[in-house]
Design goal:
The chain is an alpha+beta fold. The protein has one domain (3-404): Orthogonal Bundle (Cytochrome p450), CATH 1.10.630. The protein contains 19 helices and twelve strands. The strands form four sheets. Strands 1-2-8-5-3 form a five-stranded mixed sheet. It has a three-stranded antiparallel sheet with strand order 4-12-9. It has a two-stranded antiparallel ribbon with strand order 6-7. The structure holds protoporphyrin IX containing FE.
Length: 414
Amino acid sequence: MNLSTTFDPMAPDQTDDPYPLYARARREQPVFFAESLGAWVVTRYADIAAVARDTERFSSAGALESSAVFPDEVTAILRTGYLEFQSLVQSDPPDHTRVRNVFNKALSPQRVAALEPKVRAIADELIDGFVHDGEVDLIERFAFPLPGAVIGELLGVPRSDLPRLKRGSNAKQILLAGAAPPALLAECAREFVDLQRYFGAHIEARVDEPRGDLLTLLAPSDIGGTAPLTMQEAVCNAIDLLAAGHETTTDMIGNGMTLLMAHPEQLAALRADPSLVPDAVDEILRMEAPVRGLFRRVAVDTTLAGVALPAGARLFLLYGSANRDEQAYPDPDVFDIRRRPATPHLAFSKGIHFCVGNALARLEGRVAFERLLARLPGVRLHPTRPAERRAFIILRGYERLPLAWDAAPRETNA
Ligand code: HEM
């Protein structure tokens, strides 16, 4: 089998269970060029960790952008806002260091811990909406809205604005991918500029009326705020959180519930001892990394695992493969919530881009699994409505995840 032509995260067989192919790549061709991505795929734990740590040889600048050239009409619309997508995940030091320091404070363990009561309240409110029905599409009614509402809280925007923010964030993803008809690209450019203006206005308003939220912490010092950021950096990074912190977390919840449903003995252990939930969250992230992989660009001619890589080449760090590497974990395909591995998983990457939202993601995972298991007795995969995976290059998760449980009848006053 030729990995170069076979590897395709969008292919249905690789969407269902890509792990045998990853194992084969680790054994036979640990670094290979994938035509579907136009990038070199890195599959072994040690190589991925080495690339993630070495920001001199492997850059993140423009790592998520396509090389597509926009039609003039689209560029003209984007010029009315900020043309460039300047965000943390796509930057290198020294800019990265300066922006990251702001985010380290904004998402510090203390600030995240303070959000816990709110996260619990949102989770319970969502479950209240379907607990009596006995069945639900978990993605639509819980795993998608939960992290969306939590990011809204963190940023400090009204919940009623979330659909608008989501539209703008989706538009940005389509622009980044670049491969859409010109009319759609133009529509997305308008949505994206609208979102930039929305955040620009909110950030400016925080200068006169500071609140305890993230938009206040992002307000640039040159307009009277406290952050050593340009307005463009503040706006682009606020927008980036909508993508970085939303569907990643949705996928962790969906992947986790599916793993637990498929391993009744692990589910029983977790129900018997809820103190295992934090370890279970990390084992879920190891087994089914929501960020399957992310790109880097080779900064200077180099070699990796014996493969010559020219400057400018793109790499795809396959975190989902690193987490199943037999050199890093014994029995890597076994789901064991008591595993507590000596080697940390790479679901949040490593080095300077290590997920700055990891504490929040772990909190959301912990609360989600605790509340779902406590409130949905006998929860199981739906007997007739199958789960459907989402085809997407970067993220691995579910489009639909129907579940059923033994619902208590709704109380009535009749
Ligand atoms: C389970 C959920 C999540 C997963 C699996 C995840 C995964 C990741 C990964 C793999 C990276 C490194 C990207 C790279 O290779 O360069 C990253 C970076 C990042 N994540 Fe997360 N993430 C999650 C949740 C969140 C949340 C909740 C937030 C914030 C609300 C967040 C914000 C960010 C940001 C801003 C970065 C860029 C950090 C930097 O470049 O320094 N993430 N995340």
